[in-house]
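Hey Z.,

So I finally got round to the coenzyme A thing we talked about over coffee. Here's the setup:
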Amino acid sequence: MVRERIRLSSLHDRIMSADQAASLIQDGMTVGMSGFTRAGDAKAVPLALIARGKAEPLHINLLTGASLGNDLDGMLADAGMLKRRLPFQADARLRAAINRGEVMFIDQHLSEMVEQLRSGALGHLDCAVIEATAITETGAIVPTTSVGNSASFAILAERVIVEINLAQPAELEGLHDIYIPKRRPAREPIELTKASDRVGTPAIQIDPAKIAAIVVTNQPDSATTLQAPDADTSAISRHLITFLEREVLAGRLPRHLPPLQAGIGAIANAVLSGLKDSPFTDLELYSEVLQDSAFELFEAGKLAFASASSIVLTAPMMAKVMPAIANYRDRVILRPQEVSNHPEVVRRLGLIAINTAIECDIYGNVNSTHVNGTHMMNGIGGSGDFARNAQLSVFVTKSLAKDGRISSIVPMVTHVDHTEHDVDVIVTERGLADLRGLAPRERARAIMENCLHPSYRDQMADYVRRAVARGGQTPHILEEAFSWHTRARETGSMLAAPAQEALSA
Amino acid sequence: MVRERIRLSSLHDRIMSADQAASLIQDGMTVGMSGFTRAGDAKAVPLALIARGKAEPLHINLLTGASLGNDLDGMLADAGMLKRRLPFQADARLRAAINRGEVMFIDQHLSEMVEQLRSGALGHLDCAVIEATAITETGAIVPTTSVGNSASFAILAERVIVEINLAQPAELEGLHDIYIPKRRPAREPIELTKASDRVGTPAIQIDPAKIAAIVVTNQPDSATTLQAPDADTSAISRHLITFLEREVLAGRLPRHLPPLQAGIGAIANAVLSGLKDSPFTDLELYSEVLQDSAFELFEAGKLAFASASSIVLTAPMMAKVMPAIANYRDRVILRPQEVSNHPEVVRRLGLIAINTAIECDIYGNVNSTHVNGTHMMNGIGGSGDFARNAQLSVFVTKSLAKDGRISSIVPMVTHVDHTEHDVDVIVTERGLADLRGLAPRERARAIMENCLHPSYRDQMADYVRRAVARGGQTPHILEEAFSWHTRARETGSMLAAPAQEALSA
Ligand SMILES: CC(C)(COP(=O)(O)OP(=O)(O)OC[C@H]1O[C@@H](n2cnc3c(N)ncnc32)[C@H](O)[C@@H]1OP(=O)(O)O)[C@@H](O)C(=O)NCCC(=O)NCCS
Ligand SMILES: CC(C)(COP(=O)(O)OP(=O)(O)OC[C@H]1O[C@@H](n2cnc3c(N)ncnc32)[C@H](O)[C@@H]1OP(=O)(O)O)[C@@H](O)C(=O)NCCC(=O)NCCS
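And the result:
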């Protein structure tokens, strides 16, 4: 079994224990690990490292595709082993360590980190730890459920540790398309004009001599959990689908829609799920992550093709999809995140990008990352890669958070990840605001009328009225712009005093 | 002379007066005009329109490449004729009308407006008014000193008015490279891998039947004025060049540097000028606008090639360059702004993008457009196209504005055009902060130590200390984040009270 998965026999003598492999990683090193939104993370070497980190000083700079699964980010944070973490995470304990200032977290566009690594701006990559389905006859590494930055890590690292995971179906081989842009000035166009185009090779070819260790594991990806669609997320989905139908009718979008990208999380998943009951057919995804919704759309016969960088599923969906993964080989491609999120391809294909906001302001600026402008949630992930270059950049959010004590539509966002220039449409369960071709004062009206929750309408109207009296392209009252946020800190709610009283009366 | 410039003789009967041509434009129409940072604007038809607008109700939606010259934006604003203006302007009177809320100004990425126009999201384009050097035998329009959006306007408009400007040298013909991306899903890669590559045609080919009027003019572009480099802008230039030299030495940049983009205005011009005295040779520009500095670099033998969308010069430089423009035909290309600024090409070529900030904050967010977060200066222009997709995104600004009463480095910018994710380097006359690979708390230190003016050091250190005590990835005190701005409004200066007293003592 193992030997079938390591087809270059000269590598068989590199098989060793996770502890032995982990000993290649020294204090102070920069390490690149596979793993993207839980999928395809290395499972044994990180654990061995954490065990060592409890016994001896061991601090690393950790680069990944995106967030790790199996509680790894949390355990690494608890062990105090992370000096620097990039480009994304989604773990409560790591988040807390970041917000205490203990871990230097560099929150970066997912397509971009590898450019900086390649150019040397992030220093030397000492070691890569890559989960693989197999190693081919030529020593090429076949990834598992994500590609992420694994290919570039393997290429750029001084030494490579491969984890062959027997629990990942051998049939994953053939799903991947590994294309890595050449170094400039030899960089060429990415000749990808359809979501289903293959432009690379099925595995990551490096000099096999760089493979310093092979560890055999047998453990599935950690499944994700997804809140079931609720009335609000279903309403968001409905508003967006109605809008897309109108755009098609008006001739502004093609009948089968351009390829779709959808962000992580419950809302984005619900929006995609909603397409099952829409009139649209022959849809394509050109996205970063395939969640359950992608496979529901396949089942419903709605989806013709899906391209992404990782597959992250709930346990029931994983149990269904993974054993049958061979059936998806002509309908799914997994690519390096540099390609799945590449500005060139995103713009060329004219994606509809659907991402989730923490908060939006009335002028169309979006905060995806920082609660109260200070505390990191997860990171920008790929949302900027897509929003900035898509044909139609949509942000979704519930109009309220924390049982109505927080409005997700605010006078001014406390942190900007997506500027007014990059946000075309905002959708809440209340409705949809189409901001294209609107000046800021018009955007404010559209967002207030369509997206804002009624319980915040009066206080927003009051703010805008007084702001407009002061003039400007984008009217604001600077000394009050964050007053909703400071009020929530002081009183527990963004609601103005009279509304709070009315509520408790 | 005129007949030589209109080589398709069947069009000769379309020659008419500006008043006659302008009568094709009716109240309420959407009009696309040539013109980009003063260069190549239509000169007679807009004046005829303005004259009519004084006598009868005449309001238009005006789309251009970027800002117009010849005081046109100001006169149109004064005449109250602009309902909607996009995507950029740089005129004091239009700016005032925008900030009063009289003109709906849609401030857009320069590469992107035309995508929205093409898809129908900006409505129907009734008429295009394009300045031309000539019309060819096949009826193709040869632009003058800018291409901007002229090609797409001519293609998309129902009717086209051409102004043949005899004052523009006939030798401009051959300088342009007109490539317009196909409609999706037929969109293909832009096969441009060097600044000097030609991928299109020398003129804008449309059905000649659409050319409804031809007006003959004889008036040069309005020259620009540029503040001479001063001690501060020279220092900015020196810091940046020293940094680039170090990057080359460290092997992170190639010896001749990647192609450079530089924004508009005095500082960006001074930075480029400074390269004359640098060790760099065989430089290339892949930029949006060529200012005087580009031609100084040609003269100094430093510049091998320059690609842009427009040429805007001071009067003395114009007098030198324009008569000799034929000599530049193998060293200069003018492209549609969709191509000069295209994310695909910007990322592929790995540009060094140098743009000017109004203010930056200590975490590396940049405001390029809104004074005090409310009042529009010019617009984002192409800075977002470049900053988001460049290899190295540099923002320059003097550390002080308004004689030191304003610090251009603030705790939090009042408007974000370029997020922390898109800003690699900040340079003031004090020094340079390299933000790559730094977490926000580290960025704050780098910017405070290298870029902030010493007169603001104490009050910034105090803010940061208290903000850090509250925690977070990006520490802030929301109720004080804009206190420098509100203090400036109240006291005339951002300086804290003690510093103001010390100053006046
Ligand atoms: C924005 C984002 C955090 C939303 O996540 P989600 O799971 O879809 O949405 P939820 O509504 O469950 O919100 C997550 C948390 O934020 C909180 N939240 C939401 N809006 C809030 C607001 N305006 N203020 C404060 N907290 C808010 C929720 O209450 C919830 O908190 P909890 O974890 O304590 O319950 C998530 O989509 C994200 O990290 N996006 C950035 C990266 C990205 O877009 N990637 C996509 C490209 S693949
Ligand atoms: C940012 C920008 C306005 C700077 O212009 P500039 O001519 O190089 O710089 P200046 O220092 O002369 O500043 C212009 C004005 O802004 C004012 N200003 C500068 N910093 C300021 C600040 N922090 N707060 C308030 N005003 C400020 C200056 O005092 C000056 O005012 P004045 O016209 O009343 O004298 C200009 O570069 C711009 O519009 N950029 C956005 C578009 C862009 O980047 N295009 C480039 C892609 S081609």
